[in-house]
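Dear colleagues,

For the upcoming journal club I promised to circulate an example of a predicted protein-ligand complex. I picked one with iron/sulfur cluster because it came up in last month's discussion. The inputs are reproduced below in full, followed by the predicted structure.
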Amino acid sequence: MRWSYSASRSFRQCQRQWFFKNIAASGRANDPLRRRAFLLSKLQSLSAWRGKVVDDVISTMLVPVLNRRGHITLKGLKERASDLFNRQLEFALAHPINDPNLRVTDEGDEFALFYDMEYGQRPSDIDIAQAWSDVDEALTNLFKMERIRDGLKSASYLVAQRGLQFELMDGVTVLAYPDVIAFAAEGPPLIIDWKVHAFGENDARLQLAIYAIALSRAKRHVDFPDQPASDPSTVALIEAQLLTQSVREHQISEEEIIDAEEYMISSAYEITSLTEGKPFKDLSAKDFQAAQYAESCQRCSFRTICWESLHAN
Ligand code: SF4
């Protein structure tokens, strides 16, 4: 089983939602329920999508240029963001989720699906204009944030959105995707987590501690420096709020590292006790508890198949 911080949160919020996303969803399976679950798992709110556009532009354009010691202008970055934003918007508004020929891998970087197109209404022109304005502002702010600029420019090597994997316990592999890892020529690396929302009250401390542990224990990618980080408490951790220009630096103590390890183990144990390593064919949505709070269902991407599965038989 693959464990991640987001999967652990999903499991605690609603076990059934976790089942649809982590066991049922499959883009390759012939079973229509599994394909449906896979496509529903790709639904995004407008607000999550605009954050992803920012993240993708940083990962695919800014980071490679900085690694080449090249030069990039804010205008160039915004042009790339605008192109991606418009192509994904067009795709998402067409909402081809029921097209039997839809293959996510064939769509390249245009692929995007909106939650509201499935369960609500087409986003209004005002909402779309606001989403673009947020992308524009986030990128403008990124160029103004001195601590972030210094962290990125002084790095000997940058890595964006790279999976870090390590074995947590028998049959459980942890998977973590830090937004950016900035390796330094000397000293410990820096992990940056981008946030693109106006209210920066969410503290990403536990998630960042898990990233630091993953960096110290994961199988090294070939392009990583020899010893990325042997001690997770030395990894520099930054949560960067791109809409508010707020930078939170986290220094994680050894005790917090132990707490984060205990969190991962207890969550993985909770999940494996329920699934016992069984594959999809031996499990059913009914084996998993529904959400405790109705509000969780209001935001859930799997609402249709969840309700259909409950009313089947
Ligand atoms: S609709 Fe509600 S009960 Fe069903 S998977 Fe989603 S959150 Fe869970």
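Two points we might discuss: The first strand starts at residue 2 and ends at 3. Strands lie at 2-3, 43-44, 113-114, 157-160, 164-169, 172-176, 180-183, 190-195, 236-241, 246-250.

See you all on Thursday,
B. R.
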